[in-house]
Amino acid sequence: MSNVTGVTDEELAQNVAAELSDDPKVDSSLIDVVADGGEILLRGTVGSFWQKREAQKAAERVDGVTAVDNIIDVRLLTEHRRADAELRADVLHALSLNGMVPGTVDASVDDGTVLLSGTVDREHEREEAVRIAGNVPGVVDVQNDIFLNPPLSDV
After folding, report:
1. Using CA atoms, how far apart are residues 155 and 152, in angstroms rounded to an integer?
2. Does the reported pTM lie above 0.70?
C-alpha cells in the first residue's frame, strides 16, 4: 500500500529504520519498525527513556510519516537500575536545579516510572519538567499529571 507521498509501506519502514540507524542517540539494534499508510509503529527495547524519546523524534523526521505509535519498552541495564526512593531524590534535585520548573512540581516513582504532579502557570514549564525528568539516569517512563493553572483574569 502506498501512502500520500507515493512510498510503499515497506519503503517507509526501511526509511524510518535507516533514520534510526543513522541517529547516534538511538541504539536501533532492538527496534522493529512497521508502517501502515504513513503511520509508524515502533516496538522493541532500548536502554533508556531518553533513547525511546529520541527514536520517536527520528521517526517523525522521515518524509511521509504522518503519526508514530511508540510502544518501545525501556529495560535498564543492571548498573542503571536504581531504587525508586533514590531515583525520586535525583529527579526532584534535577527539577530544582532548572529555573524553568517551579517548586510546585512534585514527582513520585514506581518501578522506574516517574509520575509528575503539581501545578504550573505555563505549558512550557510542564514540557520542561517532563524533559528534565526523562533525562535522569534510571527513569524508564514519565507520566505527566501536572495541572496547568488557568490564566489570571485582568479584572
Report:
1. 9
2. no
